[in-house]
Amino acid sequence: MSTMIALDAVTKQFAGKRDVVALDAITLSIPRGEMVSIIGPSGSGKSTLLNLVGGLDRPTSGHVSIDDERLSGLDDDALTRVRRDKIGFIFQFFNLLPTLSCVENVGLPLHLRGWPRKKVDERARELLGLVQLDHRLTHLPEELSGGERQRVAIARALSVYPPVLLADEPTGNLDTRTGEEILTLIRDVHTRLGCTVVIVTHDMSVAQSCQRTITLRDGRVVEDVRR
After folding, report:
1. The domain that contains 148 carries what CATH number?
2. Distance separating alpha carbons of residues 27 and 71, to the nearest angstrom
3. What is the rounded CA–CA span in Å between residue 41 and residue 189?
4. For residue 193, what pLDDT is reported?
5. Per the CB 3.0–4.6 Å rule, which of 31, 63, 120, 185 could disulfide with 107?
6. Which residue range(s) make up the domain with 113?
7. pLDDT at 186
């Protein structure tokens, strides 16, 4: 199985009154199509790792590659294209635009790619149907429950059918039952689309539902378990 995500001796250090090493020489590979959870205590480097894989930040040293393309060698425009074409993001707090309807929020990344309006609308409606929200097309985020907002966020993340889906505490802002529904949805999307999924979580039930769990502590991998 080919590698989709690779980290080669990746270190991330934040400078301040006292330098902080968030990630310490991590080497890691995630095969294409695998569903992986990243766990560890607060401050262990989970979100930093996700940000580096997603091209939202750059490592202090080492290399991150997505689909055999080294992100460290790319300028800002090329890195933006990788994020746009290959990576879908799901955030804990949804990050939906409050003045846009569900169908408009989902279609926004496609508008930014220059898709025709009719094609954008068709794809957005298709994706909202995939996440079982085709009855909420014209609703604003404030008119939705937390679980419904997260479903819209998932639909938006899937707008270009990205090969990589990154989720930062996707159930952390939801009650237990809704969180289970969202996890089931992510697993269903993973099965249907065959994308590589990386989930940062504090929830062990979420972690254990994945094919593989990587545990971080003090910026290092201390355990790597495949099920």
Report:
1. 3.40.50.300
2. 15
3. 28
4. 83
5. 120
6. 33-59+72-226
7. 85
